[in-house]
Write a structure and sequence with these properties.
about 290 residues; alpha+beta; Alpha-Beta Plaits; Metallo-beta-lactamase, Chain A; 2 domains; 6-stranded mixed sheet; about 20% helix
């Protein structure tokens, strides 16, 4: 729980607040934009929740916060936030919540599928929180865990131990050292099953990969995200740990595929038609070439 003594001065007066342990991961601003906004290197409460739904969304942000930097001065039922996760995004795709500090608050996702289709897929690792683990268990557990890159592995080992799932990760991001069961090598795309394609996209890290589900949902880790400020798809030039040249080159590889959703670990989710997504991707590549 956040420390009232560390309450940031730019929070508006009232019940909910953010303290100075905030790492500016953006999770609360995505989950509850009516309550939280950005102020420099922190998130703050810019408007206190008014409706029941506002309170529920703010409590979801509190639960998801990787550093427990969100607090309240009044009592609220924690299950308002806890029981909201995993939260459905679209179809059988869910946002896990419970973001992990060790992944700098990166988002993780769950694809819920019957065993006949290969079972559930967890993309990157949330915190290993008892409440979340029980919910995932009730939804069918985890058969496959896809790790996009080494930054966002968080509690992957605990999830692997609990669900006896097969982890998938690229060799160039230390998959063998991490004990990953299925290791991707090279730059060729790999069909994990009829609905899942792993696509190596080096750049942010040497072994970064994205996961395409049903030619509709693209789980992009830290490779590609939506920017509401620029109203376009973007890559993170200031957070490219391996090679911007390689990331620009590997981004072109995604032009070979159709997708309607970009679901990143960091940055904003975006949904549009496959045609418009392709146009956005082309625009992003041209922008990257000039950086």
């Amino acid at each position: 729980m956040a420390n009232l003594a560390l309450r940031l001065p730019k929070n508006v007066p009232g019940d909910f607040f953010v303290d100075s342990t905030c790492i500016d991961c953006d999770a609360c601003r995505q989950i509850a934009p009516a309550t939280f906004s950005e102020d420099g290197d922190f998130s703050i409460v810019h408007h206190q929740p008014e409706t029941d739904d506002d309170v529920r969304r703010a409590m979801m942000a509190l639960v998801a916060c990787p550093t427990a930097s969100i607090g309240t001065t009044e009592h609220h039922d924690a299950h308002l936030g806890i029981d909201a996760f995993p939260e459905q995004i679209a179809d059988n795709v869910y946002y896990c919540g419970f973001n992990a500090e060790s992944s700098f608050g990166a988002w993780s996702y769950l694809v819920v599928r019957p065993e006949s289709e290969g079972g559930n897929v967890l993309i990157d690792s949330p915190r290993f929180a008892t409440q979340l683990v029980k919910r995932i268990e009730a939804m069918g557990g985890v058969r496959t865990m896809f790790l996009t890159h080494k930054d966002d592995v968080a509690d992957h080992q605990r999830f692997a131990d609990r669900f006896n799932c097969q982890r998938v990760m690229h060799a160039d991001d230390g998959a063998q050292r991490l004990g990953v069961e299925q290791i991707i090598t090279g730059e060729d795309a790999l069909n994990l099953d009829p609905d899942l394609i792993a696509i190596p996209v080096p750049g942010h890290t040497r072994g970064h990969a994205v996961l395409l589900y049903r030619n509709k949902f693209l789980f992009t880790g830290d490779h590609l995200a939506w920017s509401p400020n620029r109203n376009s798809l973007i890559a993170f030039r200031s957070a490219c740990w391996y090679s911007w040249t390689e990331q620009t080159r590997s981004m072109r590889r995604l032009l070979d595929y159709d997708f309607e959703w970009v679901l990143p670990g960091h940055g904003r989710i975006h949904h549009d038609s496959a045609r418009k997504m392709r146009a956005q991707l082309e625009r992003c590549i041209e922008w990257m070439k000039m950086r």
